[in-house]
Amino acid sequence: MRYFFSIMAIVAAVTFAQLALAPAFLPPVLRPDLGILMGLAALAFAPRDFAFVLLFCLGLSADLFGSARFGLLTLSYLLAAGLLLACSWRELTRGDFIPVWLLSIAGTALAHLFYIIFGRIAGLQVHWGQALAIYFSLVLSACVWGLPCAYIGGHCLRGLGILTIPVRERWARETRQRPIRRVKARNIFGG
Q1: Which residues are CB-contacts of 143 (< 8 A; sequence separation ≥ 6)?
Q2: 190 lies in some domain
Q3: Nearest Cα to 16, choosing from 3, 35, 42, 1?
């Protein structure tokens, strides 16, 4: 039941941020696809079943509010996430933010490449100049917003209690060691 409410809360927050906050505060070239960014953060930090259900729900909400063909974004999100998980599973289980940031850039690029390819197969009229401009703006915005989304998504999942055991243990160990590092740094630099 906790997974259900967590998924609904995350989907509602991401949909609100995508539809209301991003267009109001960001220029068009820096508007990220928050659905894939938050879904990939969940794929890195949460259990796999939760992450794939969340990605599916985020893809459905993206399809409802911004897709030319219903189901294409959902399919693209899940294919990109599955491909990236198959390629980089070991890097994702460590709890680092930098691999998740790189994964979010690659995931955005793959998901929207799949969207263009499957849209073309499904008979969408693809205007290549406009499609490439949107594609590159989404990849650029993933470069800018991928790390903050990974950080926010990871800590949101931590607050909801949905982290995997290795990630939870690593973050708890780092939290315990942080004051010791500060004392050592003060001693070294004479502060």
Answers
A1: 105
A2: no
A3: 35
Within a domain: 158: yes
How far is Cα 28 from Cα 33, in angstroms, rounded to an integer?
11
At 90 the pLDDT is 66
Of residues 28 and 184, which shows the higher confidence score? 28
Whether residue 98 is contained in a domain is answered as: yes
Q: What is the CA radius of gyration of the chain?
A: 18
Residues 6+ apart with CB under 8 A from 83: 110
Domain total for the chain?
Answer: 1
CA 124 to chain CA centroid, Å, is 26
Within-domain flag for 24: yes
Residue 21: predicted pLDDT: 86
Which residue segment(s) compose the domain that 159 sits in?
A: 2-164
Residue 161 — φ and ψ, nearest 5°? Answer: 75, 35
